[in-house]
Amino acid sequence: MSACLRFTRRVWKSFIDNKGHDAQCFPNLTITRAIPGLVETKLSIEPYNLNRVGTVHGGLIMSLTDTLGSLAVASKGHYMTGVSTDVSTSFVRPAGRAGDVLSATAKVTALGKSLAYTRVDFTNAKGELVAYGTHTKYVGRSSSDPNNVKFSEDGEKVIEGTDVE
């Protein structure tokens, strides 16, 4: 497993261990791939993820846009992923029902000294785009966290900081 995937999963585990919003809304989120600046995930849709008409609740996708944008920042070596300044999501078609799998790809589109910009694309089992979102984060204070790391370009190795197994 690459250092980037290990690190990003460790950051995700810290979200879940906090027992906050993420642990309540999508504890079964799986990170399937992480390279610097890109994270791919899968989420098995549960009945508690649905709206009253039986499809994925838009609020779930909004929350995932926020969380997955944060994990995209983590994939760049940031243990603390900053705070949200803007989150936006557009809905293209229903995202599924209980038992379906929702896939998402989160990318860092720009990362500066104080702001990070991300985009998240959500697809259904057929590979159809069901929603997309953008997420802006203030990372100015988190960029100096002692748990941060720097990856090799391909994300296979940590070249600065501690690689925790």
From TrEMBL:
It holds the Pfam family 4HBT. Residues 145-165 are annotated as: Disordered. GO terms for molecular function: fatty acyl-CoA hydrolase activity. Residues 54-131 form the Thioesterase domain. InterPro entries: ACOT13 (IPR039298), HotDog_dom_sf (IPR029069), PAAI_dom (IPR003736), Thioestr_dom (IPR006683). Residues 151-165 have a biased composition (Basic and acidic residues). Keywords: Hydrolase. NCBIfam families: unchar_dom_1. Belongs to the thioesterase PaaI family. This is Thioesterase domain-containing protein. It comes from Paxillus involutus ATCC 200175.
